[in-house]
TrEMBL record:
Presence of keyword Nucleotide-binding: no
Protein name: Putative ABC transport system permease protein
Membrane topology according to the record: Multi-pass membrane protein
Organism: Malonomonas rubra DSM 5091
UniProt keyword Transferase present: no
């Protein structure tokens, strides 16, 4: 450690409490900045991964809001509109389509248990295509009265494959065929069953909330969509890219708000650094005057004070990154509790580029905050300072 840097460090140690509090202020700012940037990156990557996992190229739904479609695709939102599954005839007769499956998502009350099940009716033969990442304990339902439970449902009801989930009003007994292993997404909260069974339970024999479609050649998807739109009035077709853009726009709004809060926190931290260093300068006026009297130049004084600011900014920044990574799971848990949709998987992880960029940014802010106190210290007149 150079002489000037060592002197700067010793000066900070003389006022440990103030220095620590100032560093913690910087740590909080860089920690929040790192978390927001990391979460945004993880969100976009997770969203893209989940859309790829659906195995679908576009969704056919009743005319409505694209945000509702996005929610349906990604976590089975309940949409108060239905398609007539007769649309499937037009879909399957359209050239270039390799997979088309109706999906029926709804809430199903169970008076006996005093609960409401979230059911997800689907063609079980197509389940592996639209949920390729799932691992199932037991088997995929092959009978009309068999169901597949999401992990959270199975844990809450304490059910295993072969157990009875419920007996419906029409006397139908629903048996657990299998349980989906933990996905960390909203998929864990649903009861999956053959779409014919779901239609019967809801008394909507030809209803679907959406039809998922996969094409043979993605390059011809625009032609296929135009053909379907012309053949079937009253439908809305949304591609996975449009779903991603829709949710990404919502995430961008949240990101803008978060960054605004971060900038305010950084501004407060910068003022705190400036105040802390200025107080240190004023308290050491006579000391600085003696240093000038024994040969220290204005630049030497400026450098010492600026190095104190550098230490505070760098140490505070590194502490902030460490605490953010350490508390990433808590941050993710909080975000998932307040944000309507968050992709599954780890969203906040250590990224060297984001970490380095966050520390560099807070370092520049810290240096900028320390320039005025350093200039003020360099301007001290040695004779007046010694006289007090």
């Amino acid at each position: 450690m150079s002489g000037f840097l060592n002197l700067s460090w010793q000066n900070l140690l003389r006022h440990r409490t103030r220095s620590i509090l100032t560093m913690l202020g910087m740590a909080a700012s860089v920690g929040v900045l790192f978390s927001v940037l990391s979460f945004n990156q993880g969100f976009n990557q997770g969203l893209e991964t989940e859309l790829e996992r659906t195995g679908l190229h576009f969704m056919i739904v009743p005319s409505g809001c694209a945000h509702e479609v996005a929610s349906l695709v990604l976590h089975g939102a309940v949409i108060p509109k239905f398609l007539d599954t007769k649309v499937m005839q037009h879909v399957r007769s359209t050239s270039g389509i390799s997979l088309a499956t109706p999906i029926l998502v709804a809430q199903l009350p169970d008076p006996q248990r005093g609960k409401i099940d979230l059911i997800y009716g689907v063609d079980m033969a197509a389940l592996s295509a639209i949920k390729p990442g799932w691992q199932i304990d037991g088997k995929t339902p092959t009978q009309e009265n068999e169901v597949l439970l999401g992990y959270e449902v199975a844990q809450h009801e304490k059910l295993q494959p072969g157990d009875t989930l419920r007996t419906t009003e029409d006397g139908r007994t629903l048996i657990v065929g299998g349980i989906v292993n933990l996905t960390g997404s909203q998929d864990d909260a649903f009861v999956y069953l053959p779409i014919e069974t779901a239609q019967a339970l809801l008394d909507h024999p030809s209803a679907a909330t959406a039809i998922g479609v996969k094409v043979d050649d993605p390059s011809k998807m625009v032609e296929i969509i135009e053909s379907l739109s012309a053949a079937v009035p009253g439908i809305q077709i949304v591609t996975m890219g449009e779903v991603m853009n829709s949710i990404s726009n919502l995430a961008a709004s949240a990101k803008a708000l978060s960054l605004s809060i971060v900038l305010i926190a950084i501004l407060i931290s910068a003022v705190g650094v400036m105040n802390s260093i200025l107080m240190a300068v004023f308290e050491r006026t006579q000391e600085i005057g003696m240093m000038r009297a024994v040969g220290a130049s204005r630049f030497d004084i400026f450098r010492i004070i600026l190095e104190e600011t550098t230490i505070i900014a760098l140490v505070g920044g590194l502490i902030g990154i460490f605490l953010s990574v350490l508390g990433s799971r808590l941050i993710e848990t909080f975000v998932r509790s307040v944000v309507p949709y968050v992709p599954s998987g780890e969203l906040i992880s250590f990224d060297p580029k984001i970490a380095a960029g966050s520390v560099l940014f807070i370092f520049i802010i810290g240096i900028a905050a320390g320039v005025y106190p350093a200039w003020k210290a360099a301007k001290i007149n040695p004779i007046e300072a010694i006289k007090g």
